[in-house]
Amino acid sequence: MGSSPFILQMKGITKEFPGVRALDNVTLEVHTDSIHAICGENGAGKSTLMKVLSGVYPYGTYEGQIFFMGEEMRFRNIKESEHAGIAIIHQELTMIPELSITENIFMGNEITKNGLIDWDTQKQKTVEILKKVGLNISPDTLIKHMGVGQQQLVEIAKALSKNVKLLILDEPTSALNEDDSENLLQLMLGLKKNGITCIMISHKLNEIAEVSDAVTVIRDGQTVESYEVEAGHVDEDKIIRSMVGRSIENRYPEHESHPGDIIFEVKDWCVEDPEVPGRLVCKNSSFNVRAGEIVGFAGLMGAGRTELMRSLFGRNYGIYKSGTITIKGKTVELHSVEDAIENGIAYVPEDRKNLGLNLLDSIRKTIVSADLKKILTGWLLDADKELAAAEEYRKALRIKTSSVDVGVTTLSGGNQQKVVLSKWMFTEPDVLILDEPTRGIDVGAKYEIYKLIHELAEQGKAVIMVSSELPELLGVVDRIYTIFEGTITGELPASEADQESLMKRMTVTSQS
Amino acid sequence: MKQIKQVLGGDLRQYTMVLALAVLIIFFNVISDGRMLTSSNFQNLLSGNAYVLILALGMLMVIVIGQIDLSVGSVAGFSAMAMCILAQKYELPWFIGVLIAIAIGLAIGAWHGFFLAKLGIPGFITTLGGMLMFRGGVIWISKSISVPAPEELRFFGSGYLPEWGPTFTGMNNSTLLLGIIAIVWYIYTELKRYKSEASIGGDSATPLWAVVTRVVLVSLLLAYFTWLFGSGREGTSFPVPGLILLILIFIYHTITQKTTFGRHVYAVGGNKNAAALSGVNVSRTYFLTMMNMSLLSAIAGVLFVGRSTAAGPADGTSWEMDAIASVFIGGAAVSGGVGTILATVVGGLVMAVLNNGLMLMGVGADKTQVIKGLVLLAAVAVDVYNKNSGRSSIIGKLFPSKESTEKKEG
Questions:
Q1: Can you give the pLDDT of all 512 residues of chain A as single tens digits?
Q2: In terms of Cα–Cα distance, which of B287, B278, B357 is closest to B112?
Q3: Are B104 and B138 contacting, i.e. CB atoms less than 8 angstroms apart?
Q4: Residue A363 shares a structural domain with residue A417
C-alpha cells in the first residue's frame, strides 16, 4: 500500500457539463484515519466532487486522477467504488421503509446457502454491526418504525457491513435533532479510532470545529483552501471568508428603491413538519415587507426558507400551528392557494420543472393559468383575450420564442422563468414571493430577471426574494433576513450587510 | 408537400388517426363490394356505437386527470336496469325514469369521487370496487331477468330524425338541415380563426388559399355524409342517438377546451403539484370528473336499453374496455394531461368501423377481438415511438418541414 499518509488523493479533477464547468482543477487530499470536512456554498461543487469520487460520473467523463490507498482508481460505477471500500451516505436516506434492518443491510449483498438466503447468519451479522454503531434493537425492526437518527445509523451500519475504508457523509446532521447529531458525531470519532476515515460535507461550522482534523473549502468549483486543524481550534471566521470570498462584480442593475407603508406582515409563524411530528420547520417567524421594497431571505439549503414561503402561500406546505398574516392592514386567514391568490399573494417556486410549470402546456396557456377568470367572456375562456395577454407578456418580458403556441419545454431556463413570472404578474399580486428566481439560469438572463424584480418593486409591489446566493441578495434587495433551522436569526439593511456577516447568521458558530 | 400540410393545418398529429379512419373505411368498402358506404350501414354504425362514444367522452377526461374508470359498464347497466324496474313497477312516465337513471349515475359518481378525491384511493381501485358492486347490483335487483324499457325510449335509442317539408330535396330534410348547419358552422369557425390569426399577425398565420381549400374539402365531405345519411330508404335518416352524441361532443369539446374547469382538468393531469400551486382545487377537479363519468355512463345505459328495448342483467359488460381503447387510440397519454375530445371520437370511430367492417367481411367475433387488440397496441406503440424519438407523427415524417427543425433550436 506504500507509505503515503493519504488514504485518498484527488488531483486536478475537472468536470464539465454542457455550458458549465462544475469542477475546475480541484484537489482533495485526505489523511488516513482522519475526519475531513468539506465546506462550500450551495452549488459550489461539493456534491459533484463526491459523485466523481464514488463513480456516479464514471472514469472518462471527468479529467484528473483519483488515488485511493496508494493506487489509481478508475471507477466505472458505484459498485466498483463500494468494492474498493468507499461508501456514501446521502442526505436523503436510501433504504426501503417496508423492509427490516437485516434485509436493508444485506440488500444486493445477500448471504446465501444453496441458493437460498441464510437468514440466521445475516441476522447474527446484523446484530454485530448494529452494536458497532451503538444501536441495540432487534434486526427484524422495520425501517419505517425507526426515527430519522436511527435510520442514519443503520445506513452507516450498512456501509460498515461492506468493509468500508472511507465513509462520506453528505450533510449527515441536517435532518437530525441535537441529541441525534451529537450521537452521530461521537460515532464518527469512534469510527476514526477503528481505522475508518470519514469525509463530512457540512454547513454546520460548530460541528466541523468539534470533530474534524482537516477542512477543505470549495468555491465556484475550485479548491479555495485546504488546511489541517486541531480539533476544537477551527477558525470559523476564516472558513466563512473562504466560502464567500468572491468579489461582487457589476452583475446587478442599478436600482433605487422607495419603500412605502408595510403591506405584508407575518407574526409568530409556526409550522410543523408534515413528516416528522413535533419538529417545527418554522419557529416563531416574524417579518414584514413594505410596498415597493425588495426583501431578501438568506439561508442555506434546508434552513426552512421554502417551507416558510410555501406555508404562507395558502398553507401549501406543512401543518399550520400558529401565527398571523396581515396584508394591507387586514389580517387574513389563507386556507388554500386560491385564497392566497385572491388576497394578492403570488409565489414563484424554486423547483421550476416540478412545481412551477406544467411541461405539457404551451406558453400562452401557462401565462394565464393562475388567473383564468381574467380571460373569461361569460362562461367561456376567450382565446383572443388569452392570446392578447400572452403576447403582451411576451413583449414586456422579452420572452424569446417563435410563437406563444409552442410548448414551454422548447424554451431555455431563463425564458421559462420569464414565463413563470408572467404567469404570476398576470394575477396582479400585491406581494410577490420569488423562491430562488435565478436558479439554473445563465448570467445574461439573470440580469434581466433582476431588472424585472426592480420594475415590480417600482410598481409598488412588495417583493420577497429567497436566495442561496449571497452576492445576488446583496446586489438586488433592500433588506435581508437571515434564517437558520427554521428561525429568523437576523435582519440587516442590505447596505450594511456583507457576505461574512450574513453567513455568520446563516450557520451556527460556536460563539453564538 | 408543404401545400398539403398547410391545407391540413398546423398540428398534423391529430390527422394521423383521421387518415387511418379514412383508409379503413375505403379499404372495407372495396373488400365488401361497396357495402360499407351505404346509408343503412352508416345509420346502424352510428346508432349502434353511440353509447360507447358517449362513454369515451367521459373516459377521456378521467384519463387526462391521470385516473381510470373501470366501472362505467356496470354503472350503465345498473342505472338503466333501475330505471326500467322502477318505471315498470310504478308505471312512471319515461322522462321520470330517465331522470331517475341520471340521478343514480350522479350519486354513484359522487361515491367514486369521494373515495378518490377525499380519501385519496386511486381511481383504479375505487372503480374496480364499483365495477364489481354494480354488476352484482344489476343481477340482484333484476333477479337475472330482462326488464322491458319504456316504449318512448326507443326513439332515443334507435329512432331517426323526422321527415318534413318539401320532397324535391331528394333526401330527409332534417338531415339536410343538420348538414347545412354543420357546414355553415365549420366555415364560420375557420374564417374566425383565420381572422384572429391574421389580426395578431406573425409568420404562423395560414395563407388564405390553404384555408379556402381546407374549407372546400371538409364541406364536400360533410355534404357527402349528409347525403349518405339522408338518402336511405323511406323513414330512415340521421339517427337520434347520433344527434345526441353530436350534441354531447359539442358540449364536452367546449367544456374541455373553453372553460376554467376544462383547463383545470388538463393542469391536474399534466402536473398535479404545479396545478395546486397555481390555485387549482385538485380534489374538486378529481371529484367532478368522476361524477361526470358516471353521469355519462347512465346516459349511455339509457340509450342502450332504448335501442335493445329491454334492460338485461349483462348489459354493459366490458364497455369500459371499448371506451378506454377509444381514448388511447385517440392519442391520450396513460400518464395523464394529454388527449382531446375530438381525437377520442376519431379513436372511437376507428374501433366502430373496424367492428363493422370485419362483420361485413364475415369475420367472426373471436378474430375481431384479436384484431381490435392488435390495433390498440399498434396505435399506442406508434404514438410512444414518435414521442420517444421526438418526431411529430407518421405524416410529420413524410412531410418534413423547416418549421419543426426551427422549433428545436429555439
A1: 445 788 999 999 998 876 567 888 999 999 998 999 998 776 678 888 988 998 888 888 899 999 998 888 899 888 888 889 999 888 777 788 889 999 998 887 888 888 899 999 999 999 999 988 888 889 998 988 888 788 888 988 888 888 889 999 988 877 677 778 888 899 999 988 888 999 998 877 788 888 888 889 888 788 888 888 775 667 777 777 777 765 445 678 888 888 899 999 999 999 998 887 888 888 899 999 999 999 999 987 778 888 999 999 999 888 899 999 999 999 999 999 999 999 999 999 988 888 889 888 999 999 999 999 999 999 999 988 999 999 999 998 888 888 888 888 888 778 899 999 999 999 999 999 999 898 777 667 788 899 999 999 999 999 999 987 888 898 899 999 999 888 899 899 988 888 888 888 887 655 44
A2: B287
A3: no
A4: yes
Q: What is the ipTM of this complex?
A: 0.81
In a domain, A214, yes or no: yes
Residue whose entry in the numeric block shows the C-alpha cell 334492460:
B311
**Are A96 and A233 within one domain?**
yes
Pairing of strands A6-17, A20-31: antiparallel
In the structure grid, which three cell numbers stand for residue A384, read together?
383572443
Work out how many CB contacts closer than 8 A connect A with B.
Answer: 89
CA–centroid distance for A85 within its chain: 28
Give the one of B202, B271, B281 whose C-beta lies nearest to A403's C-beta: B202
Among residues A413, A428, A443, the one where a domain terminates is: A428
Distance from CA of B350 to the nearest CA of A (A): 26
* Residue showing cell 464547468: A21
Indicate if A335 and A270 belong to the same structural domain: yes
Check CB contact under 8 Å for B200 and A401: no
Total domains present in chain A: 3
Domain boundary among A375, A405, A428: A428
Same domain, A238 and A256: no
Q: What CATH number is associated with residue A330? A: 3.40.50.300
Over its C-alpha atoms, chain B yields an Rg (Å, rounded) of 22
> Closest partner residue to A338 among B262, B263, B279, by Cβ?
B279
By C-alpha distance, the chain A residue nearest B251 is: A380
Q: Which residue from A466, A175, A510 is spatially nearest to A299, judged by alpha carbons?
A: A466
Kindly state whether residues A438 and A365 are assigned to the same domain.
no
| A1 assigned to some structural domain | no
How many whole angstroms separate alpha carbon A366 and alpha carbon A284? 35
- Residue ranges of E strands in A18-161: 20-31, 35-39, 63-68, 71-72, 86-89, 112-113, 116-117
Judge if A423 and A471 occupy the same domain: no
Interface of A with B (CB under 8 A): 313-314, 316, 336-338, 340-341, 347, 349, 354-361, 365, 369-373, 376, 379-381, 383-384, 387-388, 391, 400-403, 405-406, 410-411, 423
> Which residues in chain B have their CB less than 8 angstroms from residue A409's CB?
none
Q: Mark yes or no for CB contact A349/B263 under 8 Å.
A: no
Torsion sign, CA atoms B167, B171, B172, B173: negative
- What residues make up the domain containing A399? 352-428
The answer on A371 and A302 residing in a single domain is: no
Chain B residues with CB-CB distance to A361 below 8 A: 266-267, 270
Whether residues A200 and A103 fall in one domain = yes
Does the beta-carbon distance from A384 to B266 stay under 8 Å?
Answer: no
> Considering the domain boundaries, does residue A436 fall inside one?
yes
Confidence of residue B184 (pLDDT cuts 50, 70, 90): very high
Q: Is B362 left (phi over 0), alpha (psi -120 to 50) or beta?
A: left
Q: Does residue B352 carry a pLDDT above 80? A: yes
Q: A33 near A101, Cβ under 8 Å?
A: no
Q: Is residue A43 part of a domain?
A: yes
DSSP code per residue over B183-217: HHHHHHHHHHHHHHHHHH--TTPPPHHHHHHHHHH
